[in-house]
Amino acid sequence: MRPISEATARVSGQSFSRKYVSLGRVLSCWKEIVGDKLASKAQPVKINYRRREKGGNPVAILDIAASSADSTLLHYQTDLILARINQIFGDQWVTAIRFVAAPVNGKPKAKKTRIPLTEDEKNHLSGMLETLADPDIKARLETLGTAIMTEQKQ
């Protein structure tokens, strides 16, 4: 029998190697790197290290998961993101960014519960539309008016 501490050290040494620690550092500073607005829409998922041919520092490529629309937004800010990462963590630490199409663990949007119109509001809306002769246009405008009035109530 061997102590469990030996197995734990071996397993954790593989799991928490340098690339996982550096990814954790990026995750902890993610809002400062991309800003509050994009931090919830994209997240770093992996850092790939490759050795340079002539024995220099390894090349680090950061994979960022985002939707295709958010990836396009982030693509235009690639140089800024790289500059912020390297400013926080050191000179040329991450050399490239790759965008991966994947769902991001953002906050789910809560469904808005619509407050129904009162009888007075319904009567007011139908009174405004009673002069219309076309029933199709009248129905569409009534739907639009109902949506506008319920939005204003919230």
Give a description of the structure.
- The chain is of the alpha+beta class.
- The protein folds into 2 domains: 4-101, 2-Layer Sandwich (GMP Synthetase, Chain A, domain 3); 119-153, no CATH class.
- Helices cover 53% and strands 15% of the residues.
- It has 8 helices and 3 strands.
- The protein has helices at 4-15, 18-28, 30-34, 36-39, 68-75, 78-89, 119-129, 135-153, and strands at residues 42-50, 59-66, 96-101.
- The protein has a 3-stranded mixed sheet.
- Strand 1 and strand 2 (59-66) form a beta hairpin.
- The longest helix has 19 residues, at 135-153.
- The chain is elongated.
- The relative contact order is 0.11.
Features:
8 helices, 15% strand, three-stranded mixed beta sheet, GMP Synthetase, Chain A, domain 3, single chain, alpha+beta, 154 residues, elongated
Question: Would you spell out the secondary-structure blueprint of this structure?
Answer:
Blueprint: H1 4-15, H2 18-28, H3 30-34, H4 36-39, E1 42-50, E2 59-66, H5 68-75, H6 78-89, E3 96-101, H7 119-129, H8 135-153
Parallel strand pairs: 2-3
Antiparallel strand pairs: 1-2
Helix pairs in contact: 7-8
Give the termini distance in whole angstroms.
66 Å
- Per DSSP, what share of the residues sits in E-state strands of 2 or more residues? 5-15%
Contiguous runs where pLDDT drops below 50 for at least 5 residues: none
How many helices in DSSP terms? 8
> How large is the radius of gyration?
27 Å
Helix content: 40-55%
Task: Record the strand order, biggest sheet.
Answer: 1-2-3
CATH architecture annotation name of the largest domain: 2-Layer Sandwich
Judged by helices, strands and strand pairing, the structural class is alpha+beta
By CATH reckoning, the class of the largest domain would read: Alpha Beta
Mean pLDDT: 79
What's the CATH topology name of the largest domain? GMP Synthetase, Chain A, domain 3
